[in-house]
């Protein structure tokens, strides 16, 4: 009897874990729907703030934003918040997401570039 209970328990746990994995990937995909990848026009606008901004750095910022920030919560659309609000939110979230200095720089530059969209 104990062996049957143990087997049932292991099967139940396995099903929960598998369901959680598939749900997370669906949420992550859905999470990026309203967040735009940077375009050439975004790069030009970003260079007005950051003269050394490159296409690769802007793309890496987007990639970090969508993968690491989207792990814990629904992604925020950059243009929906003010620069001041982002400057309050981002440092706290960067610590929680354990971003490297380079990831912080690229992600913040992506956010600020996209925040200034018209």
Summed up, what is this model?
The protein is mainly alpha-helical and 118 residues long. 74% of the residues lie in helices and 0% in strands.
What are the key terms here?
74% helix, 5 helices, single chain, 118 residues, mainly alpha
Q: Would you give an account of this structure?
A:
By secondary structure, this protein is mostly helical. The protein has one domain. The chain is built from five helices and no strands. The N and C termini lie far apart (66 Å).
User: Biggest β-sheet, characterized?
Assistant: none
Strand segment tally:
0
Q: Please report the number of helical segments.
A: 5
Return Rg in Å.
19 Å
Strand share of the residues?
Answer: under 5%
Fold topology:
Layout: H1 2-31, H2 40-49, H3 55-72, H4 83-96, H5 101-115
Helix pairs in contact: 2-5, 3-5, 4-5
